[in-house]
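job 3f2a | input accepted
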Amino acid sequence: MAVEAIALLTGSGWASGINLYLVTFMLGIAGRLGWSDLPDVFSRTDVMIVAGVLVVVEFVTDKVPYLDNVWDAIHTVARPLGAGVIGAVMAGQSPSIGAVMGGAVAALLALNAHSAKATTRLAINASPEPVSNVSLSLLEDVSVAGLMALALTHPLITLIVVAVLVIGASALTFWLWRVARRSWRRIRQRIGVTAPRSGPSVENNGNEAADPNATSGL
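job 3f2a | predicted structure (218 res):
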């Protein structure tokens, strides 16, 4: 039971950093169908309706270049905070995991995943040959659904997968942040306003410009 609870907590925590609302909605479905012994709050009708609406909103917003960057910026706080709440609620019913510990672990995992997601989108939008946001977003949605399904059915495998994802996301975030900074710097240089220099612009190799009206010898 402890392994199952930890696997579901870590799996949902990391996946929440990619798509918090899809995770919440899937937990509600799992609770209603009896796939896992989850707190009733996830399967409440009002919670599932709000989560479902936000799933649709994120599904559309996350596929629009630059708008996805704004959405990610807003969710820098929302995703880890939401994951922390989900983790605390799930861990609260487990005697082996405290609510505070569960919330903290889930929040940190969500922050790890969110950082990789946000920097990836920055790098893609800054690239002169960007990968389709639609393709990447669909891949993220499928990955979230797959990780949640794995957490509900194969706890031990989920723990291994989450550990690999954390390491990979940390390395990817570091590398892509450097790539994104260089790319955005080039974009600013390309589209930025370069103000003309005031004063004389003609170089005379150290000699002053000759006055055509000046008379020699005077």
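job 3f2a | The chain is about 75% helix and 0% strand.
job 3f2a | closed
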